[in-house]
């Protein structure tokens, strides 16, 4: 059947929560009522990737974006646009439109965006493998299986300079090489989709919008390192990701793109889904392996690292969803193409998720090296309500704390550590200046206390004592010595905790103690909260003379 | 047992050496050892809490932190292997501060009422706090308060005193493969708990008490029978009889400062007599009796084609383990009661009649190296006289504490003999205390009974020692009898799985729940480690060698018991008094 127009409806979990499913149903009803059932087709797609209001509808090939669309708006779109060919101007997306007609020019409605990982998201129906294949899907897998040796694949990935997008930024090619060289008949590929960093939801949107890109990459990784079995560890709170993956795996198997003897070659690769039960620490790679094995999710002793001894004690590659989604384009376009994006030491793009007190919320993929200023004030549209910026927490509570003085630092794995910060998973939590620093830090500390696995003393008890002290301070019972205790405990935890979680947990505390020293001091010396957030008296404001 | 110092030493010969610098001194250590092991080889005893020899290293307590030059963070020496050229500092300012802070953090969530604790004086946390000079706790805050779990007849759990080192969990999982307890919850709410949060008494716990030996603090201890025993001793209406297990005489000297492996039989008897027991008898008498009953059971099965292999039944921890995990092998297990229970049954019938005492006025107390004996003596089946065979069972630790309370110093005691007639025993009974002992004792008797010949060499070395599973083949009247010995339930599992799969060639198997057998039992003095276990085993064989009679069937008191009272071995009366049955139990 040939259709003269497609209407794409973004159906991510968040869009669905905002009514996208009802909008889609209404579109189908109205299109049928208008007698356009044979001419116009409604399609579900994944995230459009930009910080956009939902529900989000694109009319294709006209490249017209309507957002946000409510059920009430649907009849006008159908009657005016689809029937009469007249764009409904009042409903147009107001992103970077500058008053004109916003057009959906793939890959992005945002100028600074560069879509590699999200190349298909929002454009294809994730539940239909044909659409993925039509966009060169599984071509990279075919290429490696028929034209390349495993060593050549690893070489390409190494030369691309791709670094792990889960937060640590470890070179992916090296990880594959270690695993390839490790001794062992059986090896495994594990995709880490246990996205638990507060403020991060990129992996969910990648899996919902383009599940095949991850499956294809896992098969490529399997071929490169000599593994025939893959596991995707997805958090159970992502039912739509899981559903899309299940459909995608079934479709890929049906077409011989996964399973026995892929594409008629001697290479076989299967993927199984494992659901995480909601523990943050299971995003730590070795705790994740424990969890897949059915054990309590606690980090393992390292070394040995997973490439030597991973799942069931066998050599294992663990890659993040976003890392894997980069693989097929790297294979198809070559490492030099990849290196042409981003910075010389940190090539490629990064998917950021904008949350907090910023005007435009959502997902955006941009080249590495973009500044925080561009992300927050251009793409994010600035701070909501005209407030000032207090800080941006990058990569979730375990990542980095970016204060306003760091707005022009290029965002990359290698640059942020210089400022005691970290890129992490790409979460950007923007916090405006109405918030209290003690309250912010306490919030982060409570999160870690809740998510600590309890294995090591400094994290289990030290983390608790940090919260105890912060609670005391915000209740007006803190003393100046408490600030020194906080600093001491933070550094102690960093230096002696068992795993990355405990070592990273005090980062925001330590950075904020330094940068917002004065605000902490006011809390403990004057026993008041300048922002009036803590449960004690607000700082007395100088009386204003009222003129009559 | 995973990594023992012996293996480390063996490793040293097998692998190449690397050069590391410890506190400025260059040393050569075997490649692959941890920093902790390397330091210990050099005589630096890096303090630890969660590390325990024989268990997998875990790295959770963060007490054994050391500084490695070039590493931004401190490293836990127990889980970090040495590398060529490593420069290690074990007492720098950073290291000392880190260790002390972690200790303070542990103490900040600890009751700090050492005087009220079972482990006062033998607590590793207390010892470290002393060594580190902790005089204040800088980081105060909320302290967790838990209910004490007293549901088990053997093991008391006080999570308030727990420092979450996981040594009990790893012991239960890795050594015993019981997995009765594990970590539950997360973060500050983490607690060690039986599965589903059930009380320990309703869990698959087999009461072996190995977790108590592993515990560095007072979080795990035995359920005490001390007060009940004092009450009985002080009750003029009660005739209180004591029996002491084979393994006690080689360990009870330790709480009094005697080196492990000291044989204290005579002093022990004198001490307990002074404690106020009306008779001080010996479980070894009942051990000889057990050999007669079990030996004849084995001979009968061998001759009449009964269920084989026959598996010993002396270890109540093993029995409960079997009831939970191997109920299909129930018929393989000997129906003989354990020596403790046989003793009680004989005391309250035969001996009570002899003295003309009503068994209701008789109290039988045992001193056992064991916590499972507390469970065993309250099993419903164990009432041959109509009253409990054994009323109270004390651990070695409890018994030592009672002596100390009364002011009896075992070291200063004269040598005295057990009372007659239930104090007479042979060397075969003595070796019951060590792994392989029951098998050796049984072989000595079974061989002679079946062949009618005298054994030339009484020592069966192949069933002795600390190897997890030991085997021997004995030629009896031209028949090759295959036997196996396993100690520690993880080792037992290996043998039992073979039996279950029909791949076992064995006729007779000895199983003891605890590593090393009873000398390594969960009721023994703390510390009980590999080195101490081996010393106690040596002492056990020393007792055996020193006795004039070394075969159970030569025990004159046992012979008289059959003549005067029991009749035939495995006869009707013997069956009623000395044998028992088992019940299958759920795995959850």
Automatic annotation (TrEMBL), chain B:
Keyword Secreted among UniProt keywords: no
Cellular component, GO, one term: membrane
UniProt superkingdom: Bacteria
Domain 4Fe-4S ferredoxin-type residues, every copy: 153-183, 196-225
Keywords: 2Fe-2S, 4Fe-4S, Iron, Iron-sulfur, Metal-binding, Oxidoreductase, Repeat
Domain 4Fe-4S His(Cys)3-ligated-type: residue ranges: 94-133
Gene Ontology biological process terms, A to Z: ATP synthesis coupled electron transport
GO molecular function: 2 iron, 2 sulfur cluster binding; 4 iron, 4 sulfur cluster binding; ferredoxin hydrogenase activity; iron ion binding; NADH dehydrogenase (ubiquinone) activity
Cleaved signal peptide residues: none
InterPro entries in the cross-refs: 2Fe-2S_ferredoxin-like_sf, 2Fe-2S_ferredoxin-type, 4Fe4S_Fe-S-bd, 4Fe4S_Fe_S_CS, Cytosolic_Fe-S_CAF, Fe_hydrogenase, Fe_hydrogenase_lsu_C, Fe_hydrogenase_ssu
Domain 2Fe-2S ferredoxin-type intervals: 16-94
SMART domains in alphabetical order: Fe_hyd_SSU, NADH-G_4Fe-4S_3
Cofactor requirement: [4Fe-4S] cluster
PANTHER family, per the entry: NITRATE, FORMATE, IRON DEHYDROGENASE
This protein's name: 2Fe-2S iron-sulfur cluster binding domain-containing protein
């Amino acid at each position: 059947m040939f259709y003269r127009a497609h209407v794409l409806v973004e159906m991510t979990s968040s869009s669905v929560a905002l009514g996208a499913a009802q909008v889609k149903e209404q579109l189908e009803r109205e299109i049928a009522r208008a007698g356009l059932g044979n001419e116009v087709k409604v399609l579900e797609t994944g995230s459009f990737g930009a910080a956009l209001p939902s529900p989000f509808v694109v009319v294709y090939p006209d490249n017209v974006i309507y957002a946000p669309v409510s059920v009430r708006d649907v009849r006008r779109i159908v009657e005016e646009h689809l029937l009469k060919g007249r764009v409904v101007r009042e409903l147009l997306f107001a992103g970077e439109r500058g008053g004109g007609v916003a057009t959906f020019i793939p890959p992005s409605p945002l100028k600074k965006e560069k879509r590699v990982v999200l190349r298909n998201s929002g454009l294809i129906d994730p539940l239909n493998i044909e659409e993925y294949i039509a966009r060169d899907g599984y071509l990279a897998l075919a290429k490696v299986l028929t034209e390349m040796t495993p060593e050549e694949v690893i070489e390409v990935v190494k030369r691309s300079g791709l670094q792990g997008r889960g937060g640590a930024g470890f070179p992916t090619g090296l990880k594959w090489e270690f695993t390839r060289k490790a001794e062992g008949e059986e090896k495994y590929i594990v995709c880490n989709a246990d996205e638990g960093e507060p403020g991060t939801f990129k992996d969910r949107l990648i899996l919902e919008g383009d599940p095949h890109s991850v499956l294809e990459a896992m098969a490529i990784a399997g071929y490169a390192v000599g593994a025939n079995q893959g596991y995707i560890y997805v958090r159970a709170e992502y039912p739509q990701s899981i559903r899309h993956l299940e459909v995608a795996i079934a479709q890929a198997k049906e077409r011989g793109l996964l399973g026995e003897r892929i594409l008629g070659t001697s290479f076989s690769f299967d993927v199984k889904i494992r659901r995480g039960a909601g523990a943050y620490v299971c995003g730590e790679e070795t705790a994740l392996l424990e969890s897949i094995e059915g054990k309590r999710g606690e980090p393992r002793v390292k070394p040995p690292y997973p490439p030597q001894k991973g799942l069931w004690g066998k050599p294992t590659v663990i890659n993040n969803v976003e890392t894997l989604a980069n693989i097929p384009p790297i294979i198809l376009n070559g490492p030099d193409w990849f290196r042409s994006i981003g910075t010389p030491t940190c090539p490629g793009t990064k998917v950021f998720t904008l949350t907090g007190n910023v005007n435009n919320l959502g997902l955006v993929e941009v080249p590495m090296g973009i500044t925080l200023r561009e992300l927050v004030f251009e793409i994010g549209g600035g701070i909501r309500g005209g407030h000032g910026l207090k800080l941006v927490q990058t990569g979730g509570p375990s990542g980095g704390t970016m204060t306003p003085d760091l707005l022009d630092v290029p965002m990359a794995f290698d640059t942020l550590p210089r400022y005691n910060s970290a890129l992490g998973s790409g979460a950007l939590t923007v916090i405006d200046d109405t918030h209290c620093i003690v309250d912010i830090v306490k919030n982060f500390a409570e999160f870690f206390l809740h998510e600590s696995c309890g294995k090591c003393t400094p994290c289990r008890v030290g983390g608790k004592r940090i919260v105890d002290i912060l609670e005391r301070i915000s209740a007006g019972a803190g003393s100046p010595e408490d600030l020194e205790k906080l600093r001491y405990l933070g550094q102690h935890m960093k230096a002696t905790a068992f795993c990355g979680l405990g070592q990273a947990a005090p980062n925001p505390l330590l950075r904020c103690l330094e940068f917002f020293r004065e605000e902490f001091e006011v809390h403990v010396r004057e026993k008041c909260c300048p922002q009036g957030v803590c449960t004690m008296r607000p700082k007395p404001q100088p009386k204003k003379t009222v003129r009559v | 047992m995973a990594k023992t110092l012996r293996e480390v030493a063996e490793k040293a010969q097998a692998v190449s050496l690397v050069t590391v610098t410890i506190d400025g001194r260059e040393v050569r250590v075997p490649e692959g050892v941890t920093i902790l092991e390397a330091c210990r080889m050099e005589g630096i005893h890096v303090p630890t809490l969660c590390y325990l020899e024989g268990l997998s290293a875990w790295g959770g307590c963060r007490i054994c932190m050391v500084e490695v030059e070039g590493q931004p963070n401190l490293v836990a020496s127990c889980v970090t292997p040495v590398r060529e050229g490593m420069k290690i500092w074990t007492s720098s300012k950073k290291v000392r501060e880190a260790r002390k802070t972690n200790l303070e953090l542990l103490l900040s969530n600890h009751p700090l009422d050492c005087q009220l604790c079972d482990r006062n004086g033998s607590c590793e946390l207390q010892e470290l706090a002393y060594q580190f000079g902790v005089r204040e706790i800088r980081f105060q805050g909320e302290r967790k308060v838990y209910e004490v779990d007293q549901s088990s007849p053997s093991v008391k759990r006080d999570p308030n005193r727990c420092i979450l080192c996981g040594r009990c969990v790893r012991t239960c999982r890795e050594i015993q493969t019981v997995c009765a307890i594990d970590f539950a919850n997360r973060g500050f709410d983490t607690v060690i708990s039986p599965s589903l949060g059930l009380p320990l008494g309703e869990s698959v716990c087999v009461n072996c008490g190995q977790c108590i030996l592993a515990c560095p603090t007072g979080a795990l201890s035995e359920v005490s029978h001390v007060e009940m025993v004092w009450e009985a001793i002080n009750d003029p209406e009660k005739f209180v009889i004591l029996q002491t297990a084979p393994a006690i005489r080689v360990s009870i000297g330790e709480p009094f400062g005697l080196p492990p492996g000291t044989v204290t039989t005579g002093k022990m008897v004198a001490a307990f007599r002074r404690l106020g027991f009306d008779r001080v008898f010996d479980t070894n008498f009942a051990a000889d009796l057990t050999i007669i009953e079990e030996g004849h059971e084995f001979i009968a099965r061998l001759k009449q084609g009964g269920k084989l292999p026959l598996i010993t039944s002396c270890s109540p921890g093993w029995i409960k383990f079997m009831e939970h995990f191997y109920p299909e092998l129930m018929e393989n297990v000997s129906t003989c009661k354990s020596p403790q229970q046989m003793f009680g049954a004989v005391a309250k019938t035969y001996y009570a009649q002899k003295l003309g005492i009503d068994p209701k006025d008789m109290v039988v107390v045992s001193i056992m190296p064991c916590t499972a004996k507390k469970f065993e003596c309250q099993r419903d089946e164990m009432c041959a006289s109509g009253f409990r065979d054994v009323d109270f069972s004390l651990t070695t630790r409890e018994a030592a504490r009672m002596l100390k309370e009364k002011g009896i110093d075992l070291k200063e005691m004269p040598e005295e003999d057990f009372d007659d007639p239930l104090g007479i025993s042979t060397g075969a009974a003595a070796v019951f205390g060590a792994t392989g002992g029951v098998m050796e004792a049984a072989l000595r008797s079974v061989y002679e009974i079946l062949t009618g010949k005298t054994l030339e060499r009484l020592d069966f070395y192949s069933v002795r020692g600390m190897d997890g599973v030991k085997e021997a083949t004995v030629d009896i009247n031209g028949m090759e009898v295959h036997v196996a010995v396993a100690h520690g339930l993880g080792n037992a599992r290996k043998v039992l799985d073979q039996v279950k799969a029909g791949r076992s060639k064995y006729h007779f198997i000895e199983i003891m729940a605890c590593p090393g057998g009873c000398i390594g039992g969960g009721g023994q003095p703390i510390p009980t480690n590999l080195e101490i276990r081996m010393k106690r085993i040596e002492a056990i064989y020393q007792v055996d060698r020193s006795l004039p009679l070394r075969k159970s069937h030569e025990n004159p008191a046992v012979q008289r018991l059959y003549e005067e009272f029991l009749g035939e071995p495995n006869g009707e009366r013997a069956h009623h008094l000395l044998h028992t049955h088992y019940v299958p139990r759920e795995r959850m």
